[in-house]
Target: Methyltransferase type 11 domain-containing protein
Amino acid sequence: MAPPPFDGYEEDLLDDEVLQDEEEEWVELGDEGAPGFRAALFSSQAGLYARYRPNYPPHVYQRIYDFAEVASGGVRPGQGSQELALDIGCGPGNVTVELAKTYVQVVGVDPSKDQLDHAIQGPNIRYAQVAAEFLAHHLPPRSVDLIAMAETLHWLDHLRFYEQARLILKPTGCLAIWCYDLAEFEPNEAHPDAEGAEKANALMRAYTYSVIGPFWDNRRTYIDRRYAGLEPLASQFRVVERADMRMEHMWSMDHFVGFLRSWSPYAAFRKTYPDKEDPLVDLRAQLNKLLGVTDDAAATLRVTFPVFLLLIRDPVQPELPPL
Model:
């Protein structure tokens, strides 16, 4: 039986001394561009992330796996040599556990210990507290089949990350990077009023960009631009494709408000103005009125999200020294 991928490397992945060195560098850099900045920003929201952030539907993963099959020359993920996937910025492991249904081994990577403390476990899942900009310090070259990254790229030094990714990916490996944008309410059987849904969506845009707008990190603009400007250099990867999809969830108003509480700008607003009324109290009341919600716990709201993907393959890799 062949040894598992990274046999002998797990100690490096989880080495406290190495991580401490990186943490010291994060502190020294001390700005929003520093590796690990995201860890401090989201640690306090870890429990809310795990409970309320949306999961991606099967058709999103299928699009990624189809691309991985093309990159590998026709080998399906989880079969043959397609064994190892990384989930970068894994948070509580929502994507990690989905990848583990297909790949032989999955490593979830996140700089936040609090996020990893909430992570979903599995027999073929490992987690590592490592910044994405340091991956090649911990993983052997040309060893990874898929690097997946959801809701994370805009927080990174993207060119530094791509440089790490091209070193650790196999020549047949690929990157799948994706993000969702603002939620929208859609009319359905329980709430058929299209005009009410349209007004609720306008109210959500006003809340997002006006009420808590000043508390968004400036990287939010990359999401508005669908990651335009965050592509790799031609000297790093040869093929970059884009895909646009949608996902839909049936949520209760309680769940939707929990999702809004998981936003980092909401947490920043509450920290800055602890004596002000919680803006979500009034927002909930207005949404309930517009959408005709009478039971906040009933999963009757059709909530949709646009999802956009960057699919990247054919890494430009340096020559390895002879054995």
User: Anything to note?
Assistant: The CA atoms of residues 239 and 313 lie 5 Å apart. The first strand starts at residue 84 and ends at 88. The two ends are 24 Å apart (CA to CA).
